[in-house]
Design goal:
429 residues, six-stranded mixed β-sheet, 3 domains, transcription cis-regulatory region binding, Rossmann fold, DNA-binding, 434 Repressor (Amino-terminal Domain)
């Protein structure tokens, strides 16, 4: 059975209000005698095994100092750039004396105790909430901020300008002379507002150039390879929804003896750490993911304060205030590395792979990488070709033993970072 402040007060010979005041640390300006009493009460509480009731303490203060992270799928939290968002969110909240409460939304209904039971002061989400949860949040008037998503205009948001990122990437391709430019979104990509925003940026740039769009949206891997690697109308450049699609295509092109960027230029999104060390390093649309978490914490804490200050207002006024959603926008930047180059004149004649261009399971699969410096000065470096001949007698230049792995270290191109907008300032409305 838990120990109460009344039991401690009886043993210490003081009032329960005195015990409550001492145990919450309120002894400022006390006399020496009061300090001695406080020390005695704390010692008695420790001996009796007293544990503070967090919910009761939160009720007395009017705050829990907890911020819920509501989610239906943990892959939104522990994959890709969102891990950086969550890390910065935790740091920002801790800096203000708050903590993050992971709140899974599932059939067990644990979220109801957290959201409706008063265990959090506000929350953040990466995705739209189920209707039942959204209704419960509105009924409780709980401040909620969306991170990286703009699907609910009634909620405050921190979003990336995905339209501007895709537009800048497509214009980069156009500036290098590409005309057959595709956009690829893998079938595994979960529904999200960024899909339509990136497609819109790509379409706008292509329409301005009076070129047909070549979209492969929610496309299975095999179908994408058939169209983007093996097709008779293979593109010379592909804008990929994320680094996942770019990695997939780079590997498939290598399997069939094609080069990046010599045969196909690639641009990905998100700028994960590993993309800097691909061969060649991947040109990407990047953004400061930490800003999303940092600004998300700022917005939700502002709304909590606003809600607290409006308690004295009439319900109608408080509701109107709560619906004045804020939007903070993180600006993307185009980081130009080695996976994009000028379109080659010969690329208009697209040849299907032959037996001389084996798949990855065949012996001696190699690829040649043409690197393009951002100044448009081309520099070519060739892999050593696999020696499929048994015995000598022929020219042995640029040959390796059959089955030997490609010498990737020899073909890493010079990379260069070029930011289309180095600033990550917020655009707030």
């Amino acid at each position: 059975m838990s120990v109460t402040i009344y039991q401690i007060a009886e043993r210490a010979g003081v009032s329960s209000s005195t015990v409550a005041r001492i145990l919450r640390g309120d002894a400022n300006g006390a006399s020496r005698r009061s300090i001695e009493t406080a020390e005695r009460i704390q010692k008695i509480a420790q001996e009796m095994g007293y544990r503070a009731n967090a919910r009761a303490r939160a009720f007395s203060r009017g705050r829990t100092y907890g911020i819920g992270l509501l989610y239906t799928d943990d892959r939104w939290i522990f994959e890709g750039v969102n891990t950086h968002v969550v890390n910065s969110l935790v740091r920002a909240l801790q800096g203000e004396g708050y903590h993050l409460v992971f709140t899974p939304i599932d059939s067990r209904g644990a979220w109801e105790d957290i959201v409706l039971g008063g265990q959090i002061d506000g929350g953040v989400v990466f995705q739209p909430m189920p209707t039942a949860v959204a209704d419960a949040v509105r009924e409780r008037n709980l401040p909620i901020v969306m991170l990286g998503d703009n699907s609910d205009p009634d909620l405050s948001q921190v979003v990336v300008d995905d339209f501007a990122g895709a537009y800048a990437a497509t214009k980069h391709f156009l500036g290098l002379g590409h005309r057959r430019i595709s956009c690829f979104i893998h079938e595994s990509v979960k529904p999200h507002s960024s899909i339509q925003e990136r497609l819109r940026g790509y379409r706008t740039a292509m329409e301005e150039a009076e070129l047909p769009v070549r979209e492969h949206v929610q496309t299975p891997e095999g179908e994408a390879v058939d169209a983007l690697v093996l097709g008779d109308e293979r593109p010379t450049a592909v804008l990929c929804y994320s680094d996942l699609e770019a990695t997939l295509l780079a590997h498939s092109l290598w399997q069939y003896g094609l080069s990046v960027p010599g045969d196909v230029s690639l641009i990905g999104f998100n700028d994960l750490f590993s993309t800097r060390y691909m061969t060649p390093p991947l040109t990407v649309v990047g953004f400061d993911a930490a800003k999303i978490g940092e600004w998300g914490a700022k917005l939700v804490l502002q709304e909590i304060e606003s809600k607290s200050e409006s308690k004295s207002d009439s319900p109608a006024e408080a509701t109107a205030s709560d619906k004045a959603a804020s939007v903070m926008t993180v600006k993307p930047k185009l980081v130009v590395r080695g996976s994009t180059s000028a379109a080659r004149a010969a690329s208009s004649a697209v040849a299907a792979p032959t037996a001389e261009r084996p798949a990855a399971s065949a012996k001696g699969a190699t690829t040649r990488v043409d690197a393009q410096h951002p100044t448009s000065q081309r520099s070519e470096q060739a892999d050593k070709r696999a020696d499929r001949r048994r015995g000598g007698g022929a020219d042995q230049a640029d040959a390796t033993t059959a089955g030997q792995a490609p010498q990737t270290g020899a073909v890493t191109p010079h990379s260069h970072d070029a930011n289309s907008d180095a600033n990550s300032d917020a655009i707030q409305s």
